Amino acid sequence: MLFLQSANTAAADSAAEVQKDMSAISSWAESFSGMPVDKIIEKLTSEAVDLVLKLLVAAIVFYIGKLIINRIHKSIKNLMIRRQVDRSLSIFILSALKVTLLFLLIIIVISILGIETSSFIALFASAGVAIGMALSGTLQNFAGGVLILLLKPYKVGDFIEVQGFTGTVKEIQIFNTILNTVDNKSIFIPNGGLSTGSIKNYSKEDYRRVDWTVNIAYGNDYDTAKNAIASILAQDSRIVKKYIEDDREMRKTAVAANTDTTEESTCDSTDSKKGFSKLFHHKAKLSAHLQALNKEDDVISIPAAKADRSPFIALSALSSSSVDIVVRVWVPASEYWNVLYDINERIYKELPKAGIDFPFPQLDVHISK
C-alpha cells in the first residue's frame, strides 16, 4: 500500500511539473507578441548568449566536478588498500560513492542551466523508498555482509559451522557467504542470518583439544591401560607436552631452521654473485615469515600465567559394560583430525598387546529355579 502511495505521489508531482513547464513555455511565447522583428531578434540573441554562457559554465563545472570525484575515488581507494579493507566491500563502497557523487554533480549542472531540480529529487526519493521496501531482505543481507567484512568473525579459508552447515569458507560476498563442504558441495548462505546468528569457527585459534573415551573391560588393570595410553601419547611429537606457548615457540624455531637450511643449500649450488642474491632474498623471506608469526601472536591473546596443557588421562565412569577412560590432549589446529584418527588406530592396535580388552555390551541373565 505504501509503495502504491509513493508511486502515485511521484506521478502526481511529475504531472504538476510538466504542466508548470508547459505554462512557462506558453508565457515565454506570448512575450514576443506585438514586438517588432528587430526586437525579437535582439531578445533571442540575448537569450542565446545567456544559454551559451550557461552551457559553458555547466561544462566547466561538470569537468572540474569529475576531476574532484576521481580524486576523491582514488584517495579513498588508496586508504582502503592501506587499511586492508576486504576487496568485495571496497569495490561496493567505491561504486556506490562514485554513483552518488555523479548524481549530485548532475543535479548541480542541471540547476546551473536553469532547469528546476525539485521534481528530479522528488522522483528519485520516491523511487529510493519503493526500491528499499521491495529489497528489504536483500538490504538486510547487505548490512550483514558489511558487518562480517568489517568485524571478521571468520575469513576465507576458515573451517566453520553455521546454521546446520559445516565447511570451509570459500568466498565472502556482499550478500552471501559460500561454504565448501568436506564432500565438495558449495553452500550459499545469506549474510543476514550469519551476522545475527551463532557461528562456530574451528580455525580461529591456533591450538585445539582432542578428546577420546577409551572403554576397557572389567577385570583389566587400569594402571596398565593408563600407562599404555600415556606411552602412545608421549611418542607423538604433534601433541603439546606441557605449555602451548613453549610448543608454539619450538615450532617457530623449527620452521625458521628448516627455511634457513633449504635456502642455504640453494645458495651453495650457485655461483657467488647469485648466491649473495639468494641469501639476501632468503633473509628477507625469513624476516617476513617471522613477522607474520609474530603478527599471529599479537592476534592471539596469551594469558600472563601459562596454563598446563599436559596430556590428561583419568577414569571417567564405571559404565554398565565397561570402564571408561577419558583422554585429552592439545594439538595445533591444523593437526586436529590427523592426531584424532592416528591415536584411535594406535589405541586399537597396541592396547590388546598390553593385555587390555575392549568389551562388548553385556547383559547377565540369572534364571531362578
Structure description:
The protein is α+β, with helices and mostly antiparallel strands and 369 residues long. The chain folds into four domains: 2-134, no CATH class; 153-201, SH3 type barrels (Roll), CATH 2.30.30; 205-242 and 308-369, Alpha-Beta Plaits (2-Layer Sandwich), CATH 3.30.70.100; 245-305. The protein has helices at 2-30, 37-82, 87-112, 118-134, 136-151, 191-196, 222-234, 244-268, 272-299, 336-350, and strands at residues 159-162, 165-172, 176-180, 186-190, 200-201, 207-216, 312-318, 323-332. The strands form two sheets. The protein has a five-stranded antiparallel β-sheet with strand order 4-3-2-1-5. Helix 2 packs antiparallel against helix 3 (87-112) and helix 8 packs antiparallel against helix 9 (272-299). It is elongated and about 135 Å long. The relative contact order is 0.08. Residues 1-7, 270-283 and 296-300 have low confidence and may be disordered.
Compact summary:
This protein has 369 residues and is α+β, with helices and mostly antiparallel strands. It is built from ten helices and eight strands. Helix content is 60%, strand content 14%.
Strand content: 5-15%
What's the main sheet like?
5 strands, antiparallel
Q: Could you list the spans in which at least 5 consecutive residues all have pLDDT below 50?
A: 1-7, 270-283, 296-300
Share of residues in helices: 55-70%
Rg to the nearest angstrom?
37 Å
